Amino acid sequence: MNIALTAQALQWFKNEMEVEKGDSIRFYARYGGSSPFHEGFSLGMTREEPIEIGVQTVVDDVTYYIDEKDLWFFNDYNLHVDVDEQLHELKYDYKK
Length: 96
Fold this sequence. Notes:
It comes from Lysinibacillus mangiferihumi. This protein is mainly β.
């Protein structure tokens, strides 16, 4: 599996979370909400230093990653991160 981010998503992280070189952004399974795979769980995101990286993508010296313990959430799908133009929020797609 891998993590892909569009140019708009990368800009969103710079504008909204003020990411800088050397930062780490973690995507994780959180309790509550729903996802295409797991009712009662949704995808969360936070700025956090890695402990045990399962998958990562590094862009402009910023690490976007998923911990090993959260890989179950993705069911071997790739995570694609983009921006919803109307809501100005991140949106997630899961692709084989």
